Amino acid sequence: MKQLTFYFDPISPYAALAFERLPEALKGLSYSVEYRPILFAALLHALGQKGPAEIESKRQWTFRQIAWTAHQLNIPLQVPAQHPFNPLPLLRLAWACAPVGGTPNRLQVEKIFCHVWRAQGADANEAGRLAALTQDLAPLRDPASEEVKEGLRVATEEALSLGVFGVPTIAVDGKLFWGLDSLDMLAAYLRGDPWFEQGDWEAAARSRPGVRRVSH
What we know:
This protein has helices at residues 13-25, 40-47, 56-73, 88-97, 106-117, 127-137, 146-162, 183-190, 200-204; strands at residues 2-8, 31-37, 169-172, 175-178. The protein is of the alpha+beta class. Helix 1 (13-25) packs parallel to helix 3 and helix 1 packs across helix 5 (106-117). The chain has a single domain, classed as Glutaredoxin (3-Layer(aba) Sandwich), CATH 3.40.30. It is globular, with a radius of gyration of 18 Å.
């Protein structure tokens, strides 16, 4: 059985769609999943990038594309009232649900994604809704505790150290599969596709000389 680590931030619609599609994409394969919430904004900051929703033309395309993808996959996804929003309360709540030394389970993560992406466009950070979600999840620890905040920070830094640059990312055997559209590639790896054993994985990522942008 392969151990997968699913890195996510509930702010990401692609993470929500990948979470929904994962069981179908990996049907018939032997695996277990550890769900690790991380702060996507911290990845962007560390790598000097902007999020897709911070560039207006890219934001428009992103939400058109995810609406189409959700339609194609028959997943009833609805964009929340505000996006981007501050995901820290939800990320901390997720870690507060996890036992010490563990991670949140799939049902807990599902409830958090549904809170954001299946709420008929409601505000993900509305106080009453957050309170109701917290009561439903019954976290083991205080989401506002320094212990929980530190757990999120450490998880995000560990993800960065492994080369995670976006969400969703699924890690297995030291390999990183990024994005909703990598699930088929992940499934092929888990099935033992020889492409991954013939050096093609490493060769494809080998750098080639090219023009580099110089800032002035």
